[in-house]
Amino acid sequence: MKYRTKNYITLILSISISILFCLGIGYYQTKKIILDELRSEVISVAADAAITLDKSDILKLQQTHNDNSIEYKQIQQQLRQIRDVNRRSDIYVKFIYLLNPLQDRQNSQYEYLVDAEETGSKDYSPIGQIAEEASTVKLKEHLNEIYSPEEFITDAWGTWLTAYAPVYSKNGKYLATVGVNLYANHVIARMHKLIDYGLISFSFTLAITILFGWFLSKQQVSALETLHSGVKKIGAGDLTTKIDINSNDEFSYLANEINQMTIGLQQREKMQQNFARYVSKHVMDSIIKNGDDLTLTGEKRKITLLFSDIRQFTHISEQYTPEQVVRYLNEYFSAMVEIIFRNNGVLDKFIGDGMMVEFGVPLEDEEQELNAVKTALEMVQGVEELTKKWRNQGKNIPEIKIGVGIHTGLAVIGNIGSEKRSEYTAIGDTVNSASRIEQLTKELHTPILFSEKTALAIKDKMKIKFMGEQEIRGKADKIKLYTLEELN
User: Fold this and answer.
1) CB atoms within 10 A of CB 462
2) Which of 29, 316, 341, 375 gets the highest tally of CB atoms within 10 A of its CB?
3) Would the pLDDT of 170 be above 80?
4) In this predicted model, which residue has the larger pLDDT, 234 or 218?
């Protein structure tokens, strides 16, 4: 058998296998993207509903257990509004309801507390009816978390993507669970169409390959060499490489796909570089290593927040031109960010002349409180060194003082914002408390203040000093504050 014939047969087999492999990967990735997007949407709907519902109405309804009560109708109306708003072409919420755990049962059952369906509908679940799906998805094991099963749920009503979000009272006590069912039959149909389109594409490409493969076999070796050379350069890290094959065949298509992949790698590398501006190299390396095991989409967890601010910055800035102010600030921030990264902190944002820093995210940090306080101490010392440096350089700038407030507690962490713009940040009472504590450094005449929760974690590692109980704006109870003994 001639080499060209063997080459031709090999070409057909290779292209056939390659196309099937690419189709398989494409189908899997497309399916994963669709499911992840829909799961994110349904989780968002459930979480928004859990926040929106009137907690006092839920408490009253749990006591009366009356579906003719005003509370029932008000909650039902709220759920219907959320349901109707989320019945769109891209997402179709079929059912939304409120579940109540039966505390006296041993089998972890839930009952329907409120169903958004119209009362006369065949799909309506009256108050007190057992929610069988809650046991199927093991909802009891995820009572205090926003939860969505990874697989479709199929029952007598159809196939669904579901999500559940706990509803908490104002004092943080669990009340009930919001359930959202996203109609998924059309999604499955779309996935089946992907298979059909893939098979059609494969058949057509195979026919073209058989028809013209004999005449194109001479060009195969040259094209493969070009592909091999380009991929080798990309593998060596040269992301500026572009593979040019103008034969308008599978090799050309593959070259284009590789070029698109290279663009994607360039964008990924740029994103990593941008993210590295907010976290230390240690954290960045861990994020890349953990990959899918790291959650950046939103979760409630314990973190330590640090807020810092330059004292009397407005007065200082009035003495200099805007260009000088920006130059001094940039040098100040560069020094502070280096300290933050050195202690595994994450720079959330700059707030004028202040900073918001998080510890314990996105990676767990057992010593987050210690790292936060060490950062504060090093920042205060760093500012003193920076002031001395400026004066040694002959810069006539007043002595800079900063205030640092630290608080440890629960906060919601994740990418927060809109589809067009979002940022990885923290929200919640812990964030507000940390900011208020920083403001109290002025009144207590100390550069560093931290809460009792932070102090308890470091009391055996650093010498601390009790600064008394102080009122925090927006909080009914006073908070115990501490500072480092070596500062005084």
Assistant:
1) 16
2) 375
3) yes
4) 234
Spatial separation of the C-alpha atoms in residues 77 and 116, rounded to whole Å: 7
Please enumerate in sequence order all residues whose Cβ is within 8 A of that of 463, keeping only pairs 6 or more positions apart, or say none.
484, 485, 486
Q: Prior bond to 447 cis, omega within 30?
A: no
Six token digits for residue 4: 């060209």
In this structure, what is the dihedral angle of CA atoms 273, 274, 276, 277, given to the nearest 10 degrees? 130
What global pTM score does this model have? 0.46
What is the phi-psi region of residue 394: left when phi exceeds 0, alpha when psi lies from -120 to 50, beta otherwise? left
Nearest to 352 by CA among 377, 378, 325: 325
Give the pLDDT of residue 464. 93
Amino acid at 431: V
CB 308 within 8 A of CB 404: yes
Per-residue burial over 211-222, b if 16 or more Cβ lie within 10 Å, else e, is eebeebbeebee
Of 116, 195, 181, nearest in space to 153 by CA? 181
SS3 content of the chain, % helix, strand, coil (to 5): 50, 20, 25
Domains of the chain: residue spans and CATH? 3-26+188-275 (no CATH), 53-183 (3.30.450.20), 289-487 (3.30.70.1230)
Alpha carbon distances (Å) from 19 to 22, 24, 102:
5, 8, 53
pLDDT bracket for residue 420 (50, 70, 90) = low
Radius of gyration of the CA atoms of the chain, in A: 30
Q: Residue 33's pLDDT is what?
A: 78
Structure-token pair, residue 187: 């999604």
Beta bridge partners of 465: 483
Mean predicted confidence (pLDDT) in 430-448: 93
Which distant-in-sequence residues (6+ apart) come within 8 Å of 454 by Cβ? 304, 369, 372, 373, 406, 407, 408, 482
Residue 411 has pLDDT above 80, yes or no: yes
Q: What is the pLDDT of residues 347-382, one digit of tens each?
A: 989 998 899 999 998 888 999 999 999 999 999 999
In this structure, the chain runs to a length of 488
Question: Considering the chain, what is the average pLDDT of its residues?
Answer: 81
Could you give the C-alpha distances from 164 to 100, 102, 149, 398, 457, in angstroms and in order?
12, 16, 9, 55, 33
* Residue 133: closest CA among 151, 102, 154, 103: 154
Fill in the DSSP letter of residue 66: -
Q: What is the pLDDT of residue 105?
A: 47
